[in-house]
Write a structure and sequence with these properties.
Layout lengths: L8 H96 L4 H52 L1
């Protein structure tokens, strides 16, 4: 058996000192390990943060493009609807104005166009009749002038003799 008494205050003191020393060394070892692993952990966190930032940026760009496309489609759809509504409104307005003008006795655009065509046709007929009349009036006037010139020519010959 052992001759040392485990409850001896001097032996206890050495044992406590030894255990305190080991606890101190374990603490220093843990600190060194934490410092070494902490740097690695910090670098890993920075790397993970960069990766996450890129993913978030890419996702945000995709969502922005998607939202822009949807907004463009919505604007196009609204524009088509608005154009259709304006077209209907325009048609109703034109119809009502035409009815009001017709009620006042104002001729329509189609009636005015037909009238212009009729006037042009009448002008063409009148112009053709005037040309025919001018030709018939010019023929008898030309014959007496030729006879007068023929009569004067012999008279000149007689005067020369």
């Amino acid at each position: 058996m052992s001759t040392k008494n485990p409850f001896d205050p001097a032996a206890m003191s050495d044992n406590v000192k030894e255990q305190a020393q080991q606890i101190w060394l374990a603490g220093l070892g843990a600190f060194a390990k934490a410092q070494q692993d902490g740097t690695k952990a910090f670098e890993k966190l920075v790397s993970d943060g960069i990766t996450m930032q890129r993913k978030v940026h890419t996702t945000a760009e995709e969502k922005l493009a998607e939202a822009t496309q949807k907004a463009t489609q919505a604007a196009h759809t609204l524009s088509e609807r608005a154009t259709g509504q304006w077209g209907k409104l325009e048609g109703i307005f034109e119809e009502r104005v035409a009815k009001a003008l017709h009620g006042l006795g104002v001729p329509s655009a189609a009636e005015l166009k037909a009238l212009h065509a009729r006037v042009a046709a009448l002008e063409a007929q009148l112009g053709a009749k005037q040309k025919a009349a001018a030709k018939s009036a010019a023929k008898p006037a030309a014959k007496p002038a030729a006879k007068t010139a023929a009569k004067k020519a012999p008279a000149k010959k007689a005067a020369k003799k």
